[in-house]
Design brief:
By secondary structure, the chain is of the alpha/beta class. 39% of the residues lie in helices and 21% in strands.
């Protein structure tokens, strides 16, 4: 058993009559721990601490903050296997992915640590005797809410940029996957971040978010999760005009043109599709394939889907672990059934595996009509929809049809088309002839119903700062 506690004001809090909840292993359905829920008094304590912690951390000089965050990144690297193990145990992804996710957190924190010294203002040109300076200042205490699908990375994206900016943070990882986020916060405290400046709480999500966002102490909210919950939190933030970063749902299109390297596209996109059992906000889902290469791409994708090894994330040869929850399995069953009922074809998969844990077959659908539910709502599971398209204009129109715009992918060797796609596809991130849309130094975020604001890159730091213009005469 691996129980998760609260970290408030640098102190471990658990028991004392507080509620708690089970944490389940999605591969077995067995309880692997319990997570303590914060009381309203705990949350008030965290808010008071964050207010004090902000003043102390903001006034810590840049060299010291850089050194502390770099030390924390080193501790995270040292603890990567243990943290990765907790991710696999609570979320289900293969151990190599859990460890890789943890290492990426260290890389992101290393970038943020160096970015502390690159928060530049600017001096405007004025006549002698006058001066105008643009400055950036930390916004204040930040409340972050992280989703379960990347238990470590989602948490680091909530706290790394904020700490680099000079803000204090209160983060709430998912109660379904609490250990990794808690371990990151502990590493930061062990490295020297004041316990008042980085805190970790758990509890019933709506109650915690309402309590924290009702306080004037919190000056910014940052969230990764569904569009529906993001809209709710944005409304709560608006009540006090708190600034917000929202990284919400997606439904990523993949535009495959006849001039593409089809084998490379297949190898890259099949691996991307079934990573983390498709439970990825940027997961490629709607494959829009130009008619001349449709059959080759479709058949090649089915072949690769059938070859995916599904199993427990602790098994060395596992390519894809279980889905993280029963509700995910139910959603897959409902959406696939709806697609079949409307004439869509199941080319492989389509069903749950066994009756223990959340295992589901890698699934490929084709000839799915645009009014099917799965063509309009994010399935968040191991399913790819491959449809034939007549050409570039139709493919771009379909890519832009939905209100989501987080990530999009395209495969083409035509330089002019690449420029057109960059200009015309409505998305926060576009990958052309690659499966990667994330890097520590590159902004990560969406448009339309996929949210606003950016994490990662210098934008992830500036998102936690306010602009001040100083005029001198």
């Amino acid at each position: 058993m691996n129980d998760s506690h609260l970290l408030i004001g640098g102190k471990t809090l658990t028991g004392g009559g507080r509620d708690d909840a089970e944490v389940l292993d999605p591969a077995t359905g067995v309880t692997v721990g319990r997570v303590t829920h914060a009381t309203p008094a705990d949350l008030d304590h965290a808010l008071d601490a964050a207010e004090k912690g902000f003043k102390a951390w903001r006034d810590t000089n840049a060299d010291q903050r850089t050194a502390i965050l770099l030390k924390a990144a080193g501790l995270i690297r040292e603890r990567a296997k243990d943290i990765g193990t907790s991710i696999t145990r609570e979320q289900g992804k293969p151990l190599k992915e859990g460890i890789g996710e943890t290492i990426y957190c260290a890389m992101l924190l290393e970038f943020y640590a160096q970015e502390i010294k690159r928060i530049y203002g600017r001096t405007l040109v004025r006549p002698a005797g006058s001066r105008v300076e643009v400055q950036y200042h930390p916004v204040g205490p930040v409340a972050g809410f992280a989703a379960w699908n990347f238990p470590a990375l989602n948490v680091m994206r909530k706290i790394g940029g904020a700490l680099a900016a000079g803000c204090s943070t209160i983060v709430k990882p998912s109660e379904e996957t609490p250990s990794a986020g808690l371990a990151l916060v502990q590493a930061l405290i062990d490295a020297g971040v004041p316990g008042d400046a980085v805190q970790c709480v758990f509890g019933e999500p709506d109650a915690v978010s309402r309590h924290l966002l009702a306080s004037p102490v919190i000056r910014k909210v940052t969230f990764t999760g569904s569009t529906a919950v993001g809209k709710h939190l944005a409304k709560l933030a608006a009540e006090d005009l708190k600034i917000a970063t929202m990284e919400l749902g997606g439904h990523a299109p993949v535009l495959v043109f006849a001039d593409a390297d089809i084998d490379k596209a297949l190898d890259t996109m099949a691996a991307a599709k079934f990573r983390n059992a498709g439970q990825v906000c940027v997961s490629p889902t709607r494959f829009l394939v130009e008619e001349p290469v449709f059959e080759k791409f479709r058949d090649g994708f089915v072949e690769r889907a059938k070859a995916v090894k599904v199993g427990n994330g602790f098994d060395a040869d596992t390519d894809m672990g279980p889905m993280a929850s029963a509700r995910g399995l139910e959603r897959m069953e409902s959406m696939i059934g709806n697609a079949k009922g409307q004439g869509g074809k199941v080319l492989t998969g389509g069903e749950r595996i066994g009756n223990q844990g959340g295992f589901h077959q890698p699934t490929v659908l084709s000839e799915v009509p645009v009014d099917a539910e799965i063509m309009n709502e994010e399935p968040f599971g191991p399913v790819a929809i491959i449809n034939s398209m007549k050409g570039e204009d139709a493919m771009i129109a379909e890519a832009n049809r939905l209100p989501y715009g987080l990530a999009a992918y395209s495969w083409t060797s035509n330089p002019a088309r690449r420029r057109r796609l960059a200009a015309e596809v409505e998305t926060g991130m576009l990958a052309i002839d690659t499966g990667g849309v994330s890097a520590a130094d590159a902004p990560f975020g969406g448009v339309k119903w996929s949210g606003y604001g950016s994490e990662d890159g210098r934008e992830g730091v500036l998102a936690c700062m306010v602009t001040k213009t100083v005029h001198e005469g």
